[in-house]
Amino acid sequence: MLFASRRALVYNRRCCPHHSTSGTIVTDLPEPPSGGMIDKLKGKAKEAVASVTGDETLSREGRLDQEKADAAREAKEAAAEAAQAEAEAELRAAMKENEVETERVKAERQAHQREAAIEADREQAEQQVESSIDRREETVEQQAAREQAEAAELERAALEDRAEAEQEAARLEAQAEAARTVADIADPDRTG
User: Fold this and answer.
1) Fewest CB within 10 A of the end CB: N or C in the chain?
2) Once rounded to an integer, what is the mean pLDDT over residues 141-170?
């Protein structure tokens, strides 16, 4: 007799290594006493008595009892096979779910790695741009400093030239004044 509350569980080495690794069905309830065996024995006994007594009805009952026992045994085997198939299907579904989850985690990890690589590339590009800008600014500053130094040198040279020109002009003016004075002395009528 098969009880409706009986559950059959399949333990597999991959999902439950601490349980049986044979892949057989392990039930959570003990086997009930077999009524099929009793019916089979009862049927054989009826057939034996019927063969001695010649009672065809009793012989038919004996065969029916044996067929009933065989049918109960086959039903029990079919139920066990169905439970085994169901447990195996659940195990396959769990393994497939595990594979899907593993692939999802793998894809997520790869996405994170790609994002990290993109971020690293972006940071490197920013550093290169900043470095390039810094170099350009430094070049511009150096150029400006050179131009300022050149302008200061030109201004200094211009101031020196101006000072020399003013000194030369003053010297020439002094010579002209001296020449006028000498000319006035030499020719007093020249002034006029």
Assistant:
1) C
2) 93
Residue 136 has pLDDT above 70, yes or no: yes
The token duo for 14 is 């991959």
Given this model, what pLDDT does residue 72 score? Answer: 87
β-bridge partners, 26? 9
**Residue with tokens 């034996």, as numbered in its chain:** 48
Token pair in block for residue 57: 């009805």
Sign of CA dihedral 125, 128, 134, 137: negative
Residue pair 48/17 in contact (Cβ under 8 Å)? The answer is: no
CA distance 30 to 25: 13
In whole angstroms, give the CA distance from residue 54 to residue 71. 26
pLDDT at position 179 is 87
User: What is the predicted pLDDT for the residue at 51?
Assistant: 87
Position 157 pLDDT exceeds 90: yes
Q: What are the structure tokens assigned to 131, written together?
A: 């470095």
